[in-house]
Amino acid sequence: MSENTFLSTLLMLLTAGCCAGQNVLPPGPVNGAVGGSVTFNTTINPSTATFIVITWTFRNASASINVITSTPGGEVPGRGYEGRVGVNNITGSLELRQLTVGDAGEYTVVLTPNGGTALNGQTTLKLYEIISGATITGPTAPLIAGNSSANLSCQATAGTITSRQWLKGGRPLSPSNRITISGDNSSVSIDPVEGSDNGQYQCKLTNPVSIDMATYTLIVNSTGSSLSGGATAGIVFGTLVGVGLLSGRGLFCLIESKYTGKCIMFTKTVNMLEDTVFTAALILLTTGCCAGQNVLPPEPVNGAVGGNVTFNTTIDPSTAPQFIVITWTFRNDSASVTVITSSPGGEVPGPGYEDRISVNRITGSLELRQLTLGDAGRYTVQLTPNGGTAQNGQTTLGVYEIISGATITGPTAPLIAGISSANLSCQATAGTITSREWLKDGQPLSPSNRTTISGDNSSVSIDPVEGSDNGEYQCTLINPVSADTASYNLTVNYGPVNVAIQGEETAEFNSTVVFKCTATSVPPAMFSWWVNGTEKQKGASITIQRLTHSDSGSYTCMASNDVTGLKASAVHYLTVTGGQGPGPDTTDPGSSLSGGAIAGIVIGTLLGVGALGVGGFFVWKKFF
């Protein structure tokens, strides 16, 4: 090895080593889903990049492996990466597809420019399985307020879970003196349960590439031994009346026996009153004792503002007893109000419910019309039969405004692949929004190393954008009574890439060939043609008629994108066969003479010599 070669090699190694600290990769990590794809984007500006060698390597706990090496001569993928990797020859970015758990580890890139200092970068890839089959398991036995406890557990059938979040009624659930959330958020314990714990619980399972959610409706029944205010008042009143009757019985008997010697009439009267009092007391007692029986389905009732709802009981109309009193009450955060009381004598609606309600006298079901947001709250029904046990039920009404005017707002400036970022925001002009769902080209949109979805799903951020992000994005806004969907077409300018020339490699002398150039680009690329280093014309195709050997050589298609400012090219070689001559001459084409020209020169020369000879003869004759 010569001294100059040694020094040059040493200098290259030193400069490459000295620049190892220059990281041309974002800090990361890069996150991917098993079976999906990721792109390791460099920080290289594509307008100033020119690299002759791009090398990507992978290191896990046991070994270091070459992923791919890209040079002007082509790309050489490492073993196991065939068909799974692609390199952007301008920026050095790497796309890795069909991800497996074994792809997790450390990735390094070395970018060697055509002159200058090599650039390096390092990042880490983390792999996660998509979460699916989220479920909440809860108590199976009936829950009694103040006595029972409830444990809710949240799991999934598949996926890598990195975090869990509990919600109740769509709002984050917080610990309290009765509510305990486990350290890993996998379970919730409520001890003891109370009526306020009734409702819909949600558990959101997440990892950096997916989200899944499960729902559970918790039902807490009122204490079985508790008595309503009416029952208590009735018992007190009945007791006082009974005591009064029993106390006065002796006095009545004394008066009657003084005149008749008997106390028959008052005895019968008092006995009748006593029976009535005891019957009433028994009804009131059994009504209170059966407060735990829920004749309403456990699911909450949902309605739209201005619409109607029906609270259907579980009473079978074919076997229903005759109810002598049906009472519906409503409770919100501030007060308890009688909605309606129905008896054989008629219906008495509460204030504000006139012409808005009706009761089914057979099943006790209630219809509530012209709903307002103020109607949301807890509803209780009490069904008192003609003999037998009173039945009770409790449920919750949610009232929502209809969603309308859904829109997605997005970027207004042109987007450049690998450089720009995009933010999409989803809102509505009216309605109560309880959840949002994002889709791209009809498929659910999932988070990735470039795509971030906000916690409330109201916005999506893509940084940086790539050509694969082009497409139609949809946002569906949802509540229990309505849904509305908005669409947005995202355009990312990229390319040109994958430049290719179609045409023959050999052609006969004096024939015609047509070359066509294609490239992947948004907007569509502009094309120009260069033949043997000289620009010939613009357009996606070039036609050469009546081929000669001078038409042999290189045909270069140069594709350009005016928005991205990028250019890319492809070269095609043509050989003209047959005809005259071995091929193109390397001398000045102006010095080549055809056979006719040579013959003309010979004849002209002979004629000129002859003319000079004849002229000389006449001159000699004249003067000599």
Put the structure in a nutshell:
With 624 residues, the protein is of the alpha+beta class. It contains four helices and 45 strands.
Strand fraction equals 35-45%
Q: Any low-confidence stretches, pLDDT <50, length ≥5?
A: 1-21, 224-255, 263-270, 272-292, 582-603
How many alpha or pi helices? 4
In CATH, the homologous superfamily of the largest domain goes by the name: Immunoglobulins
**Count of distinct structural domains:** 6
Strand arrangement across the biggest beta sheet: 1-9-8-3-4-5
What does this structure look like?
It is built from four helices and 45 strands. A hairpin with a 6-residue loop joins β44 and β45 (567-577). The longest helix is centred in the middle third of the chain and has 32 residues, at 229-260. With 624 residues, it is an alpha+beta fold. The strands form eleven sheets. A six-stranded mixed beta sheet has the order 1-9-8-3-4-5, with no helix packed on it. A six-stranded mixed beta sheet has the order 20-28-27-22-23-24, with no helix packed on it. Helices cover 17% and strands 41% of the residues. Residues 1-21, 224-255, 263-270, 272-292 and 582-603 have low confidence and may be disordered.
Task: Give a quick set of tags describing it.
41% strand; 624 residues; 6 domains; 45 strands; single chain; six-stranded mixed sheet; elongated; alpha+beta
Write the layout of secondary structure elements.
Layout lengths: L2 H16 L11 E4 L4 E3 L10 E9 L4 E8 L2 E4 L7 E3 L6 E3 L8 E9 L5 E10 L6 E3 L5 E2 L5 E6 L7 E6 L2 E2 L6 E3 L5 E4 L8 E9 L2 E9 L1 E2 L7 H32 L3 H26 L11 E4 L4 E3 L11 E9 L4 E8 L2 E4 L7 E3 L6 E3 L8 E9 L5 E10 L6 E3 L5 E2 L5 E6 L7 E6 L2 E2 L6 E3 L5 E4 L8 E9 L2 E9 L1 E11 L3 E3 L4 E10 L3 E6 L2 E5 L2 E4 L8 E8 L6 E11 L17 H29 L1
